[in-house]
Amino acid sequence: MVLADLGKSLTKAISSLSTSLTIDEKVLDECLKEICKALLQADVNVKQVSGLRNGIKKRVNIEQLAAGLNKQKVIEKAVFDELCDMLDSGVDPKKVELKKGKDKTSVVMFVGLQGSGKTTTCTKYAYYHKKKGWKPCLVCADTFRAGAFDQLKQNSTKAQIPFYGSYTESDPAVIAQQGVQRFREEGRDLIIVDTSGRHKQEAALFEEMRQVAAAVQPDLVIFVMDGSIGQAAFDQAKAFKDSVEVGAVIITKMDGHAKGGGALSAVSATHSPIIFLGTGEHMDQFESFETKRFVQRLLGRGDVSGLMEKIQDVIPEDKQPEMIENITKGNMSMRVMKDMFESVLEMGPMSQMMSMIPGFNSDLLPQGNDKNSQLMIKRYITIIESMTEKELDSTNIKMLQEQSRILRLARGSGRAPQEVVALLEAYKHYTKYASQALKAANLPKNMKNMKGDIQMNPRQMQQTMANMSRALPPGLLQQMGGVAGLQNLMKGMEGGGMGGLGGLAGMGRGKRK
Ligand SMILES: Nc1nc2c(ncn2[C@@H]2O[C@H](COP(=O)(O)OP(=O)(O)OP(=O)(O)O)[C@@H](O)[C@H]2O)c(=O)[nH]1
After folding, report:
1. Among 168, 262, 385, 470, which has the minimal tally of Cβ within 10 Å of its Cβ?
2. Which residues form a coiled coil (predicted)?
3. Per the confidence metrics, is the pTM higher than 0.90?
4. Which ligand 1 atom sits nearest the alpha carbon of residue 278?
C-alpha cells in the first residue's frame, strides 16, 4: 500500500485509545504525540504537524464533550478531518479534470525535473485514459536528454499508443507544435506532450517550458515530481507554479518511500491539486488521487470506490450485467472464468487492489508475490485457451474432471496435469463462493448503481470479502498468508483491524468522484 508505514503508525496510535479505560486529556495527548511522531517521520513539515495537532485539540475538547458521547469516535473523526484538511490543496480537482467532447482535443503538457519520472508518467497517464475510452497519443518534445525519444517511443509501442518525435529537429517547441498539429488532424482527443527536464530548477528549463507552452497552448500543464524528496517538494512545486501555469501535480515514487507523506502535504500547501500518484515503475502502478479516499485508505478503511472504479475499467460495461448474473446464479462457465482472470491481470498488482479493501493489510501479501500470482493466472489462462468450445461453455465440473480430458488439456497447453487439476479446483471454489459473495453484497443491484452511490455497508463488505477470500484459488490463498493469514485478517476486520474506525462507517459510502 501507498505509505504503508505511516498508515500503520497512525492506525496504531488511534487504536491505542480503545485500550484505555477512560479517555482524558492525558490519553488524548499521548495519542496525539504518536500521531505527530509518525507524521514527522514521514517528513511532514513541523509547522503543518503542529497545526494538525492544534486542530485536533480544538475539534476535541475533552472537558466539554457531553457525557455519553463516544470520545474515541469523536477523536477518530477529528484525526480524519484534520488529515483531509492537511492534504487538501483548496482547489477542486474536478476543475482540472479533462472533459471529453465531440470534436474536442485536449492538449496536456508535462513538466518536471530530470529523473522525476515524467516520461514514465506520461505513458501511465495516456494508458489510464486509453482504458477509459479516450484516444490518447504522445509527443516527445524532450530534446535535452538523449535517451528520452527512444524511451517514450518504446513505452508508447508497449501501450499501443501513437507517438510523435524527431531525431533531427532540435527545437522542442517546433517538435511539440508539429506533433500536436499532426494528431489534431488525425482526430485524437488527448495529446500528451512530454518536455525536457534538467537536474535542477534553472532559467533555461523554465524558458523552454514557456516556449513549448506558447507553441501548443495546453489545456492543462501537469507538474511531475519525485515524492521521495519529502517536504522539499514545497519549494520545487512553488518554483514551477511561478514559472508556468501548473494546473495539477502528479507525485511519483510513492512506493516504499518514507518521505511520501511529507511530499503530499507540502504540495497541497502550494495550493496545487494532486491528481495522481505513481506507485511503481510499471504502467498500471498509477492511482487517481482524491483526498478523502486517500485518507480512508491510509487509516486502513480501504477505498471501495477506487476498487469498483478499477473493476469497471476492465470489464466492458455491456458485459457486466451478464457476467454478474451468471456468477451470482453459479452458472460460471470456463469462458467467464477466463474473462475474470484477464480482468484481474488488467487491474494491476494484487497488493494494490487488496489495499483498497477495507481492513485488508498489505502485509498479508509477502513482497514479490504479485509476480507469482500473475504468473499463475497467466498459466490458468493458457490452459483454458486449449479447451474446446463445448468445454468453454460448460458448467459441468464432472465432465471437465474426466481424466482423459485433463491429460489432453495438459498436452494442449504445455502445462503439467497437476496444474490443470489446480485450475479445476480453483474453478470449483470460484463458482461456489463467488456466487455467495455477490449475493451477500447484493452486487447485481449495486452494479447498476455504480455510477452513483455505492450502497455497500462495511458489514456487507466484510461478508463479501470473507466469501471472496474463500473463492481464491488455493495457490493464491497460500501467497496471501494461507488460511491462518486470512483468519487473522478476518479477525482484524471484525475488531480493530479497520483501524478501530467502525464509527466512521457511514463516510465510506460517498460518491464515486
Ligand atoms: N519506483 C518508482 N519508480 C518510478 C516511478 N515513476 C518513474 N520511476 C522510475 O524513475 C526513473 C526516472 O523516470 P523517467 O520517466 O525516465 O524520468 P524523467 O523525469 O522523464 O526524466 P527526464 O526525461 O530525464 O526528464 C525511471 O527508472 C523510472 O522507471 C514510480 O512511481 N515508482
Report:
1. 168
2. none
3. no
4. 31
